[in-house]
From TrEMBL:
It is an enzyme of class 2 (transferase). This is Protein-S-isoprenylcysteine O-methyltransferase. PANTHER family: PROTEIN-S ISOPRENYLCYSTEINE O-METHYLTRANSFERASE, PROTEIN-S-ISOPRENYLCYSTEINE O-METHYLTRANSFERASE. It comes from Lachnellula willkommii. Keywords: Endoplasmic reticulum, Membrane, Methyltransferase, S-adenosyl-L-methionine, Transferase, Transmembrane, Transmembrane helix. The gene is STE14. The keyword Methyltransferase applies. The keyword Methyltransferase applies.
Length: 351
């Protein structure tokens, strides 16, 4: 579900009070809800000055320096999944300036310098960072696709491992491209989602890639009858195409209202968007990512990772959707209740 903002006013990522961090894609996934306005977008996706990280560090005592707590990636992953990527609320110390008349030339110059700095190296909208990531994704996509075709032509079932890499490259490229296309203000380095989905995301794909190599290098066709492999492979590829297409269309239809961060404020001009995919699916981007991810594991022929993906993604989205919809009922009341009753999620067991 997305929100429609008829105006082009700046939004929460630029100036608001309350933010939540940690998206799976998965955010993978990504949220279909943006309660803050037109210009915000995601997770890694699009940060601006008021963005607060929910991943904390331990502070030292008043008499000593601050000490950063050592993070455990497995604990981080478990926390992210159990919370559905909703994170913990933190109130920003950033406040909106009161109206004190027209801005001075010095204020305008300062604002322009701040805007320009965002495009410099190591900044949120770094042009060099964007071009480098796009180049690397294209390079890996080309190499992995070529290797996959070569191995498949020569009868090696391990072709599925580079095919998995190619699918990941397409996914991450489209995350940036669809954002830049329809939510240009929010597009930045993080829109690729290459490093902002948390340790759970990285661990899951790494394990799946390694499992695929091991299975098809040492035990091809050992777990299932050969007759089932073609069926599962075909089903997996179809789910990859379906899931990726639905997710991309959902992001495009939501436009500047799409956000991977779950924001907890609502502005008076916001309206529910219930057209297009959203007339059938309440969270089409979640639907798309869930089935895309399942499809990759069917195509890979993985067993352990398939079970893991199903369990972890189901738990993640079940809790994330529940948390989001509690907010939406609070904000829109019976309007959202009615919308929820006539639409579906499309993930088994999640109503």
């Amino acid at each position: 579900m997305a929100l429609h903002n008829p105006s082009n006013v700046p939004t929460a990522h630029e100036r608001d009070e309350l933010h939540f961090d940690n998206a799976f894609p998965a955010d993978g996934g990504g949220a279909d809800v943006n309660l803050n306005g037109s210009a915000s977008h995601l997770y890694e996706d699009h940060h601006t000055a008021a963005h607060l990280r929910a991943n904390g560090s331990a502070n030292g005592t008043a008499d000593g320096p601050q000490v950063r707590a050592r993070r455990n990636v497995l604990n981080d992953a478990a926390t992210l999944i159990n919370a559905g990527g909703l994170g913990h609320a933190q109130v920003s110390s950033h406040t909106t300036a009161t109206d004190s008349g027209p801005p001075t030339s010095e204020e305008i110059s300062s604002a322009l310098r701040a805007y320009e700095r965002a495009f410099l190296p190591n900044q949120p909208k770094s042009l060099s960072g964007i071009s480098l990531r796009a180049f690397l994704l294209g390079l890996v996509l080309s190499l992995s696709s070529t290797l996959s075709l070569y191995l498949a032509y020569n009868g090696h079932t391990v072709w599925r491992a580079p095919f998995f890499l190619a699918s990941l490259c397409v996914f991450h490229f489209l995350e940036f491209y669809t954002t830049a296309l329809t939510n240009t203000v929010s597009a930045g380095v993080s829109s690729f989602l290459l490093s902002s989905n948390g340790s759970a995301y990285t661990i899951a794909h790494t394990v799946a890639f390694v499992e695929c190599i091991l299975i098809h290098s040492f035990w091809p066709y050992s777990f299932l009858p050969p007759s089932l492999h073609t069926t599962l492979l075909t089903s997996g590829i179809l789910l990859i195409i379906l899931g990726q297409t639905i997710r991309a269309i959902a992001m495009i239809q939501a436009g500047r209202n799409f956000s991977h961060l779950v924001a907890h404020t609502k502005r008076s001009e916001h309206q529910l968007v219930t057209s297009g995919l959203y007339s059938v699916l309440r969270h089409p981007s979640y639907f798309g990512y869930f089935w895309w991810a399942i499809g990759t594991q069917l195509a890979c022929g993985n067993v352990v990772s398939l079970a893991g993906y199903v369990g972890v993604l189901w738990l993640f989205f079940a809790r994330r959707i529940k948390g989001e919809e509690q907010l939406l009922v609070k904000f829109f009341g019976q309007e959202y209740v009615g919308f929820r009753e006539r639409t579906w999620v499309g993930i088994p067991g999640i109503r």
